[in-house]
Every structure is written in C-alpha cells, then in structure tokens.
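<given_protein>
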Amino acid sequence: MDQSAAHLALLFAEAPWLLYACSFALGLIIGSFLNVVIYRLPVMMQREWQAQCDELNGKEPAAPQEKFNLLTPRSRCGECNHLIRAWENIPVISYLLLKGRCANCNTKISPQYPIIELLTGIFSVCTVAYFGFTWQAGAALLLTWSLIALSVIDIKHTLLPDDITLPFLWLGLLLTITGLFTNPVDAIIGAVVGYMALWSVFHLFKLITGKEGMGYGDFKLLAMLGAWLGWQALPLVIILSSFVGAAVGISLIVFAGRDRQIPIPFGPYLATAGWIYLLYGQTIMAAYWKLGN
C-alpha cells in the first residue's frame, strides 16, 4: 500500500462514518449504471439472437439499427425520446426532484431506478462495513454489484446473461491467486461442483417429470459462486437459496394469487444466498457447529 493509500486508510479508521458515506455514494453511482445494464443488456442480447436467427434462416440482413450498447445512445425517455440531462440523472435525488416523472412529457418514471440505486448503496455499505478498507472489500463490491444486476435481470426476463456470469466466474478463479477469499484448488472444485450439482438436479427432475425445473444460467451462477467462495460454501448456499425460494414462492401463491404454473426465477435466491455467505457464511457455520455441540 503506497503512502497516499495508507493515509486514506488511517483517515477511514479514525472516521468510519466517512468510509460508509463514500461507500454509499459510490453504490448510488454504480446503482445508476446497473440500471443501464439491467435495461440494455437483454435488448442487446435479443438483437444479437435475432441477427443470428435471420442468418440461419437465410434472410436478408436487416437495415442497420442505431448503435446500441451500454454507453450509446444517451439515456432518453421511452415515451417522448427526451434526452436525459445531467441534472436529471443524479441517483435518487433527480427522481425525487422530478417527482418520479419525465421533465419533458410528465410520464411516470419506474420506481425501479431509485430502488436499485438505494439497494446498491445499502449493500455496498454492508460489504465495506464487514471487510473494511481492504482489497477484499473492493473485490466483494464487484461481486455484490454483479449479483444485483443478475438478480433483477432474472426477475424481469428469467435470464442470467453469460456476459456477466462467465467473466465473473473467471475473475473469481483469478482472484484465488491472491488468496482473497479461497485457494485455487477449492475454487476450481467449487466451480465444477457448483455447475454439476444443479445440472444433475435439472436432468433428474426432467427425467421424472418431463419438465425443466431451472435454466442453464442457474448452473453457471452457482459455478460462479463456487469459484469465488470455494466448494465449502455450496451446501449452505443451496440450502439458503432453497428455503428462501420456497418461502417466497409459497407466499406469492397464497397471498398474491400467483399461478403456480408460472415459473419463478431461481437466480435471485442463489445470488442472495451467495451474498449472505460472502459476508456471514463463516459466522453462520460457526454458530451451527456450536449449536450442534
């Protein structure tokens, strides 16, 4: 750690509230970007799939569309195409100032945007409060943000994009070189076992019922968590995600009248369980063994 970083660490040690405030502000900013990812990445994937289908079917290439990625074009109102100005894009604050409506056409803005920003800020503070001003905190923040994006995309589209899960799987394996969370052997085993565990359940369920109980994205997400946390985390992650998923699913059916035939995405429960283990897994396991003894 260089001298400036050491001074910063000392400052945060003397004033933890400042570290938490900076973490919250950073989380709000990242949350704003995650909203872009959540909206645009599925659209980008759909366009890519459509182009591939057209090519396979021998169709003429469609007319070039406006360049569309995570950076281009500028954000705009979906109703009137009003370009969002800088002061209209301040996380949470702009939503409150605009009273949740477009500055140009007064169309209602989805509350998803400030909710994601606030949740990202809160989860960022929790992560930094646990790990402190360390390299572990920096890596854990990256994982936390990726899990938020994956969860919301899965809720909205029942989709866990490879564009997020696979790069973070490889990143988790690379980080084992530094020993931040686990060692290379446990991470490799965790990635393989994580994927194969749900893959086996998927095919067994399909063999018995003739139905597909989950998607391949869930396999990759658990493999990603195994790469970050090691194989030892997988049993608790699966148990936690199953209990939370069952509780939420039953609640939706009983209290919200949700049709039990409509599939419920499993990714958010895996992501939640993985994040809980990241911060509190060792504490939970220690309490369990203490209770057992």
Summary: The longest helix spans residues 16-56.
